[in-house]
Amino acid sequence: MFFNETATTEIYTLSLHDALPISILCDKESYLLQLIRYIHLNPLRAGLVKDIGELNSFPWCGHSILVSKQSASWLDKKATLSHFGSTLHRARKKYIEFVIKGIPQGQRSDLTGGGLIRSAGGWHNLLELSKHGERMWGDERILGDSEFVRNVLLEAEDKLTKKEQHKQSGWSLELLLETVSEIFHIDSSSIQGKRRDATTSKARSLFCYWATNDLGFSLAAVAEFLQLSRSAVFQAKSNGEQVSREERVIFPAE
Question: Would you list the domain boundaries of the chain?
């Protein structure tokens, strides 16, 4: 479980059956804490453990990492416990108390759903529902009240519209590659492949960021085009926004 702290909070957690992370956009810290507890109580609700004592040592859940001296590459222990106290001892104590209080709640429909947008019939229908003041939740997408959900969807809708406009203007991965190469004064072929010098790495990161963020190409499509793995493209994309700021370049929409 990893955190990207902003005005909202994005959580990354791993499924036992899927190597790809699931992202949840969370409105307020109260929702975040509820979600952490709900996820970590899953083994107890599913009958995989009998009580909190067994959950404390259950190896396939982040809870056992948080209450012990263990660590795991897939869980940001420090960031998670920081929401419960300023010291490790106090945070762990408060976390355990918080988890125990959640046991009687059982299954919570407000923290489950598996695909809010799909189940609502798409972006348009979901926006219409939120306009009526309904509280919207989504364990795969968005967790928050209706106003927050609506604002997120409007922003996403705007981004989707811009991406389509860019593509209709003739933008392709080939054209983007040529554009980025000119910005960094390098040969376009150096971006495709595994060269790791500083300039090429920056160019590749910017290319991946613009390709996915501004043009809407999938990681798989960009990975195939650059002859890289999807994980490599994801990492480059993550660095691309910083490169854009450092180099003071924005996507050339026109």
Answer: 2-111, 116-168, 173-247
Low-confidence residues of the chain: pLDDT under 70: 1-30, 108-168, 253-254
pTM of the predicted model as reported, rounded to 2 decimal places: 0.47
Kindly report the CATH number that applies to the domain delimited by 173-247: 1.10.1750.10
The closest alpha carbon to 40, from 90, 80, 6, 79, belongs to 80
Contacting residues for 172 by C-beta, under 8 A, at least 6 apart: none
